[in-house]
Amino acid sequence: MDSDRKLDFLGIKINILTKNGLVEKILEFALSGKRKTITYLNAHCVNVAFNDREYKKLLNLSDIIHADGMSIIWASLFLGRPLPERVNISDFSDKLFKKMIEKRINLYFLGSKEEVVRRAVENLRKKYRLISVVGFHHGYFTDLEEKEIIKEINGLRPNILIIGMSVPKQEKWIFKHLNELEVNLYWSAGSGMFDNLSGSVKDAPRWMAHIGLEWLHKLCQEPGRLWKRYLIGNFLFVHRVLEWKIKALLLGK
Hints:
Helix content is 55%, strand content 15%. It is of the alpha/beta class.
């Protein structure tokens, strides 16, 4: 499968990609010597993109966008432009980190709270003893601290800068600093990756993830923060998919 191929999903150009395909792209970009960007798409991202034109533009400028949730897969089937499978970090992280060790790829983690990113890196180093994490920093920095972070990253020259902030903050930060940092790959992995690695939030059971109920598992863990995103956001997403389908039928597409 050609992982460079993209299809139009509600006005967003998403890659036709499998888990193995994304692993290959991450490794390729990490060693390419070029500034590449990878990000993800889920129902929440789509909702944000409908209200934030800059974010939508940056998504379409990204080198790779992968389908992060089952909602995207089901919607693509309904719209008649099926994507092959959900491509979520929890499904391929073990294979990816082992390959990174083999290829001596260096990582820098940027995002989340201080204790979360620190614990995430500690747990990663315990599980993968030879993994090369050259540095990390939390995502709640001032403008002055930002300059020092950029200086530090450029001094360490990681192959991959893994960014775990909220959508659309992480994508906007990447493109703002795209030409300032000496890294090969900017990977918007999301704060959820940092939470899972740190153990502060538990992964949904695989059966829940594969039937599209991962959102419910997350909602039960953080109802105060996530109720609006999921209870209202999921309804909005379904409405937007239906509206897109109706328009396509009316236009004969």
